[in-house]
Amino acid sequence: MRNPSPGTSPPPGRTGRPRSAAADAAILAATRDALVELGWSKLTMGDVSARAGVAKTTLYRRWAGKNELVVDAVAELFDALELPDRGSLEADIEYVVLQFAGLLRRPEARTALMAVVAESTRDEALRDRIRSAIVDRQKRLVVLGRERAQARGELPYEEDESLAGHTTDLIFDVIAGTVVHRALVSCEPVDELWVTAFTALLMHGLQGPARA
Asked: Contact 73/28 with Cβ under 8 angstroms?
């Protein structure tokens, strides 16, 4: 289960002062900086505590170990993604893809994401944490985008909640998977020209838009 949100009080039964949002932010930023400089294998909780200016015990009160800490440091970056209403489904997709690509260009995001994904191939618990803290949370953007498109009449409503959930998963996998592969595996630019072509493919499929 993910740690309590920054700035909240400890759950009932625990003693101590409420968590400090400023301390949490400093710790997560220090984690990302240390990852860029040291890499996954050399990063330790001691490195993070020294950079953040907090005691090591402070880290362990919040996170059980390095895996949980690094995932939350990555998750904080992705939580900054947003989806303002651009007036159409196509414009919404283009905006969020460009925003996502811009995030992946940041050294701390790129290094941290690649590190936790690589490490998760050997750690099932880490995979579960990535899924809950990053993947499942970011599906909110797909849900929001679909709701807006349905309200505009651009997409049909799905009465079956199970089917709607599968559709959300598929859309997320296609968009996130393609952008991550393009930016971090192929190391090709995710620029406006590519995003326009990708969005058109997503909207109309391989056959393209229907001709009048």
From this structure: yes
168, 146 Cβ separation under 8 angstroms: yes
Whole-model pTM above 0.70? yes
User: Nearest CA to 142 among 109, 110, 167, 162?
Assistant: 167
In this structure, what are the phi and psi dihedrals at residue 153, rounded to the nearest 5 degrees?
85, 10
Q: What is the pLDDT of residues 105-158, one digit of tens each?
A: 999 899 889 988 998 999 999 999 999 999 999 999 999 999 999 999 999 998
Q: What's the residue count for the chain? A: 212
Within 10 A of 59 (CB to CB), how many other CB atoms are there?
22
Segment 63-87 mean pLDDT: 93
| Cβ atoms within 10 Å of 185's Cβ, excluding its own | 9
Euclidean distance between CA atoms 120 and 129, whole angstroms = 9
DSSP 85: -
- What span, in angstroms and rounded, lies between the C-alpha atoms of 67 and 207? 44
CA–CA separation, 18 and 143 (whole Å): 33
Question: Are the CB atoms for 123 and 67 separated by under 8 Å?
Answer: yes
Cβ distance 97 to 175 under 8 Å? Answer: yes
Q: How far apart are CA 155 and CA 141, in angstroms?
A: 16
- C-alpha distances in angstroms, 53 versus 29, 87, 197? 12, 45, 46
**DSSP-assigned letter for residue 158:** -
